[in-house]
Amino acid sequence: MRRRLALIAGATVAASLLTAPLFTAQAAPTLLSQGHAVTASSTENAAFPASAAVDGDPGTRWSSLAADPQTLQVDLGASHTLNQIVLQWETAYAKAFTIQASADGSQWSTVY
């Protein structure tokens, strides 16, 4: 089974580094989403692609069109236990959002 994450925001979304760090004793967090397939409901322009949300570069970001709602979906490629999700917002961040997880990309459970 594959684990997917989706961010659903009720405002313009400008997120970078959708992360799911997994911690072990004294280890640096692993960016679980980095390099995985990511899709978005919209992109503001070519300078802010969905892939920039999970590329591990704090200097890049994804930005959606200014319309509600917007989604960002990351296919993690396999099932994972998630213990933390970190969103780093640009100044035009969403006022409300939902984080959902799915094993199949069809049935979703809200995790936040």
From TrEMBL:
Cross-referenced Pfam families, in alphabetical order?
Answer: F5_F8_type_C
Q: Which PROSITE patterns match?
A: FA58C_3 (PS50022)
Which keywords label this protein?
Signal
Q: Where is the signal peptide?
A: 1-27
Q: Which SUPFAM superfamilies does the record match to this protein?
A: Galactose-binding domain-like
Boundaries of every F5/8 type C domain copy: 18-112
- Protein name per the record: F5/8 type C domain-containing protein
